[in-house]
Amino acid sequence: MSHSQRLASLALELPPVPTPVAHYVPARIHEGLVYSAGQLPFMNGDLLASGLVGESGSVTVEKAHECAKIAALNAIAAVSSEAGGIDYIEKIVRITGYVAAASDFQGHAEVLNGASAIVGDIFGDAGLHARTAVGVSSLPLGAPVEIEMIAAVREN
Questions:
Q1: If you count DSSP H runs as helices and E runs as strands, how many of each does the chain have, helices first?
Q2: Cα 81 to Cα 101: distance, rounded to the nearest angstrom
């Protein structure tokens, strides 16, 4: 099954590539790899949540997990656009995830499992990737999660 067929079978569509909020491009290709810029959990032009994960009254782990999925879909859209389409992605090589979290929060990996799960659902074995989960004090626009992705592409 192709990546686009698997995406359709999951009743998912890639969102439009988010417009950069500063002076950069959403993704760049070099020597068979596509590197995404950091992608936030924008859905229909709006940030899905804002605030720190693990801080009382702010973003729950469950909401941050969902944000990681949405940010990953935005990263897939960016790398797919640069690659010529999702079916030109050979494999996902690496995901780096940033979680804006309270200073005592330790569930970064659990949050980023949202991104890893959606990548696995869409790409199957080609979605197995290396990953880094980083906790930070803040992210652009107050987002709780930001995802970067590196994908290997087939020649088109």
A1: 3, 7
A2: 31
Q: What is the pLDDT of residues 117-144, one digit of tens each?
A: 999 999 999 999 999 999 999 999 999 9
Token digits for 40?
């936030």
DSSP of 24-74: S-SEEEETTEEEEPPB--EETTEES--S-BTSTTSB-HHHHHHHHHHHHHH
Q: pLDDT tens digit string along 27-79?
A: 999 999 999 999 999 999 899 999 999 988 789 999 999 999 999 999 999 99
For residue 51, what are the domain limits? 3-153
Number of C-alpha atoms within 13 angstroms, CB side, residue 76? 29
CATH number for 71:
3.30.1330.40
Instruction: Please give the Cα distance from 51 to 64 (Å, whole number).
Output: 10
pTM greater than 0.90 (yes/no):
yes
